[in-house]
Amino acid sequence: MRRPHPPSALRALSLAAAVGATAAAAAPTARAEPRDEVSLGAAARALRSPSANAVTDDDLAGMSIGLARDLGHDLGVEPVPGLALWVEAGLVTGTASGTMFQSLFTKIEQLGLTGGVAVRYRLHRLITASARGAVGAQRARLAISDRAATAYDHAWGAMASAGAALDVFAVSRPRFGLGVRAELGYVAAQGIALTPRTDRADDTLAITMTDAAIGHLDLSGPSASLSLLGQF
Amino acid sequence: MPTTRTLAAVAVPCALAAAACWSDDRPIQWSRPREVIGPIALKAHVAYIDPALDRVVLLDVTADRPAIAHTAIGRRAMYAVPSEDRHRLFVITRGEQAIHTGEIDQPPMFWVVDAQHAGTATSYPIGSPFDRIAVSPDGKLAIAYYSAAGNDPDGAFRNPNELAVIDLASPPSATNPALLTIRSFGSVPEGISLSPPMVLPGSPDAAPRTFAFILSPGNLTVLDASHPQRHEVSIRLDLAGAHVSPREVVFAPGAASAYVRSDGARDVLQVALEAQPPSPTDLADNDFRAVVAELGAGGGPSDVAVYDEAGGRRVVLAATPDTHEVVAIDADTAQFRSIAIPDPVNRILVFPAGGTPHKAVFAAIGGRRLWVLDLDHLGDPLAQVAPVAISLDKPVHDVVAVPGRDLALVVHDDARTVLGVLDLDTTATAPLLGAGKLDSYDFSPAGDYLIGATTGVSRVGFVALDNLHPTEFRLDDPPAHVLATANGKIFVDHASALGHATIIPSPAAARGDAVVVSGFLTADLLDEEP
């Protein structure tokens, strides 16, 4: 049975902002739809900051894992028919390699942990559009190698992301759904101060070492992902 | 269908926006090749020149922990030399023409980097991509010129007789640097020596000035570098038909004269600069003339040294291997005294350097003997002059004077694993056995230690030159270069593209006193603006 459609998606998105405020007052609505979601997919992030451009010409590529739950259902809130509020937790990884000065080999590894909310609107029984925002932390690791040695460092920094996604379901049943999510977004990341160091043998008393900081690595940039998702 | 239209209305703009802003161009500086120039020891700093990032990296080794600073310079650094006092670094940058995105139009420049004021540098546009620098001993003048390396691969024409005379005491201007082309007779300069400040005897101009002696095959050019707009003076050396190439210029301390050793010449050439009123009709005429005299070495000198005796007599020592003699020439009277030495001497050192010398060492590179001559009685015609021969077990590869000491380091060409220290007071040599080839060495500023390193061996060796006691300092990494800075620190470079060096505070320091500094060639690199 098809749900009634709102006049436009924009209207639906604007109404989403009012969800939190009206949640307590809204009347509970019984639904027979999946309430939880697991997603697994591939993710990419274009590195556009000057610091990332210094290290590599490549983009971050990795995987994403997501968990989500229909918060509106738990709170008994559905202010607009077809509109749902989900809470999400995500993990995204990424790796990029490059060269500097045609002689130094570089590698960036990134691990991001985020939590946020998403507003989803069912356009069709098999198609859902969503907008989401999340904050979290990311761990960035930078390794630089010359012919003789590798120096590396890692550190944590804050990050925030926002995106818009389109879910297309192959299976959409009252208690189970299986589909594909394509998402475009942007990640704003804090510049992470790094000081690459080389390894020392544990059994030697090394001369006191002073390592020079290489600067702040900013992994901000547009992102894209393609995930398989299952809802239950 | 409404759903399809809505979907298209959202998805298409998002996809287009994402594609448009997905990626950007990487600044070209990160893809440039980087052949770092250095390390170069300065007074209290060690400098590296990064031609990819167009900056000089200065490590201040004064404190217990080194401080890193950067000074921006122009594109494509090619050549650098320190000033004699080692407070400043002079760099020539090639510049570039903007052909690719991110490149800039920049002419060749001469940069003066003051190590004590990192972050700022003075640049002088020199017009041509010179690749050699001669600096006057007082640091007030520099001349940029071309090496004899051949054509500039990036240029169309090259004038190898062009020079840029830079007044380092004045800011850049339309007349500073002064670009000029010296007169040529078919040859090109192979080297330039700048004199210490000279006052011309009898000249109404009492200001000390610097003269440039430009060495070209068959020709010696003298230029008043303090007044570069004036004519140069050309001295033809090959008019007699023989091929003569000037090789070495030594200046008599405190006098307006120079002594020139040339390949193919039988004698040492004395060039005395005497005052002469300039032509009133020629504004660029000189106020001096070059008086040339041949000092009778008589056998094709292979090396020369000039010194002033305590009594003021100026003496030129010239080795003439063809006649198996060393000739001591009175520079004022041209009278000479020959000292027979059976070996073909081609290296002369006087001790102590910088003062009134009283000993000289003569060496034939490749031979197994050294000769020590007492100079104190050389001017006495009644005194017997007899050099003392010192026999060595190994051939001589090099002889180096220890700064401020009556000691000479003898490097044997036995893979430079065997050294000798010659004590001029006792005329004794003490052999020193190295663990490996001596790839890099230096002396401590006071001349009390020899500091040496072998590539691939993680040690620095010290020899106390007072008692020849050897010690070693165990490094954590193999060394590539060892330097002694003027403030007494020992800087060991490990040849890493990231920058990796060990700083030892003194030859007597323990490992706990030293510090390793790493990553200084990539310091703050991510915070660089493109």
Overall description:
The complex is a heterodimer of chains A (about 230) and B (about 525). Chain A has about 230 residues and is mainly beta. Chain A has a single domain, classed as Porin (Beta Barrel), CATH 2.40.160.20. In chain A, about 10% of the residues lie in helices and about 60% in strands. Chain A contains 4 helices and 12 strands, in the order H-H-E-H-E-H-E-E-E-E-E-E-E-E-E-E. An 8-stranded antiparallel β-barrel of chain A has the order 1-2-3-4-5-6-7-12. Chain A is elongated and about 65 Å long. Chain B has about 525 residues and is mainly β. Among the domains of chain B are: about 130 residues, Methylamine Dehydrogenase, Chain H; about 90 residues. Chain B has 1 helix and 40 strands. In chain B, the strands form 10 sheets. Chain B has a 4-stranded antiparallel sheet with strand order 1-2-3-4, with no helix packed on it. A 4-stranded antiparallel sheet of chain B has the order 5-6-7-8, with no helix packed on it. A 4-stranded antiparallel sheet of chain B has the order 9-10-11-12, with no helix packed on it. The two termini of chain B are about 50 Å apart. Chains A and B meet through helix 3, strand 4, strand 5, strand 6 and strand 9 of A and helix 1 and strand 40 of B. Strand 10 of chain A pairs parallel with strand 40 of chain B, so a sheet runs across the interface.
What secondary-structure arrangement, pairings included, does this model have?
The complex is a heterodimer of chains A (232) and B (530).
Chain A: H1 9-16, H2 19-22, E1 36-45, H3 50-55, E2 60-70, H4 71-75, E3 83-100, E4 104-124, E5 127-145, E6 150-173, E7 176-189, E8 192-194, E9 197-198, E10 209-211, E11 215-217, E12 221-231
Antiparallel strand pairs in A: 1-2, 1-12, 2-3, 3-4, 4-5, 5-6, 6-7, 6-9, 7-12, 8-11
Chain B: H1 2-21, E1 37-41, E2 45-50, E3 55-60, E4 67-72, E5 77-82, E6 88-93, E7 109-114, E8 121-125, E9 132-135, E10 141-145, E11 162-167, E12 178-181, E13 191-194, E14 211-216, E15 219-224, E16 233-236, E17 245-251, E18 257-263, E19 268-275, E20 288-295, E21 303-308, E22 314-320, E23 325-330, E24 336-340, E25 347-351, E26 359-363, E27 369-374, E28 388-391, E29 396-401, E30 407-412, E31 418-423, E32 428-433, E33 440-443, E34 449-453, E35 459-464, E36 469-474, E37 481-484, E38 490-493, E39 500-504, E40 515-518
